[in-house]
Amino acid sequence: MGETLIMRGSHAVTDAGRKSAGVIADGAIAIRDGTIAAVGAYRELRAQHPGARVLGDGTQLLMPGLIDAHSHGRGLSPIQKGVPTDFLENALIDWAYMPVLPPELTSALCALRHIRSGCTTLHHNGFDDEGRAGWERAHRSVQTYLGTGIRLAFSPSIRPLNRLALDDAAFWRTLPPDLQEWSKPLVIFDRQAMEDEYFALFESLRDEYESDDTRILLSVAWAHGATESLLERTRDAADRLGGLQIHMHTLQSPVQKAYGLRVHGKPTLAWLDDFGLVARNVTYGHSIHVTEADIALIAAKDASITHHPSCNLHMRNGLAPVVQYLAAGVNVAMGMDDKTINDDEDAVMEVRMIHKLHRLASFELTAPALDAYTAFRIATTNAARVCGFEGSVGALAPGMKADAVLVDLDRVARDPWIDPDLDVVEAFVQRALGADVATVVISGRVVMEDRAVRTIDADALYREVREFCAKGLGPEQRARAEVLRRIKPYVQAWYRDWEKPVLGAPFYAINSRT
Fold it and tell me: What's this model's pTM, rounded to 2 decimal places?
């Protein structure tokens, strides 16, 4: 049995689901062998473990580590790579100009930025992980993450359909002959082989890395780029593994909502339900452009969504009806999606974005606003579930994994003053920043102390990133990006007016034109 470590706070937030009843004044946790052994008053735990090392001076907030349930592990945002964000349909082409860094840099940078802001678990959701290059990139990413100490859920992903545009075969025929010839491999290829390679990759990752501390999950890159065979095989693989979590981007834009009705003759969620893919182990990324019937279906089947407030603003996606989801009983989890509001992957700020944006759900004076504890829960216990760690992370309780952080409250409470009777979670959600996080412990291991990350040489990493990016795009990537830029006006013309039939009465009425 290993040595005991105590973490102490002026307040310990043990479980956001219990609201203020889960907050212990002058609280602490005792950690042994990577697990929380006890939770309670600091005085009592100190008396029980007089020789234990103590982290925290009693002035900080002790809380569970935050959880990012939807990341792509890019490390640098599109803006940092010189590509301003835009509508998804435009961005999918514009992103061709972004430098493609090796996974040893992107995954390390992603982990560093998460850890610094108190995020102890992240879900890396892959994209276009096909072929030998995708295989190698996925393995190198996982290995890099594991070296940083962050808790990892990892899901490789592919798009065997609609890689160029939605309804890609019909779109492709609208292109001039030279662009048709260039883009033919994106539209006409062996989809069966791609799917076979995907499941081989998934099995190889699972065989090598799946553990009590690491989850390898399934993913359909997006519901709007999936073949029926991919959906069926993904469902069957998840069932075989006891209901393994499945992630997919769904209804991120009104164009995607229109596509489901055009191609399937029914809403996308109803189509997925035909394949048994509206279920407790399925999570939909974004899920903005839904109907009341969609929300009812997700709730009835106990599925989840990930909510990416900053990304949705960056990408001009719209605003997910989180208040309606929560009212229906849907599990809503936080996802940062590599695009936070200050472009810095600040997990604390993303909690605040959730809290602020969804105060606008109603102008009825008696309607309660989304409260701070609910926003905190979205970023902890709710997110733990969709990452495959339900019941083991996201709260501070005996037997759970020792993922906890200490947040300095100097700026929050003493700049220059805050009412001492204000609820501490309210104060944290309203005023804290990722920069206030001082200490991070993951599985009982001190990963960051006094704001110094122990597992990553940040200075060396930054030098490598700058040196790589300074090289610019290679001629092959630049040539590809230039051709895609020629295709972009055709994509925009293809989607013209798709959104009009599907944009009806909004869930949130934020203003009026009359």
Answer: 0.98
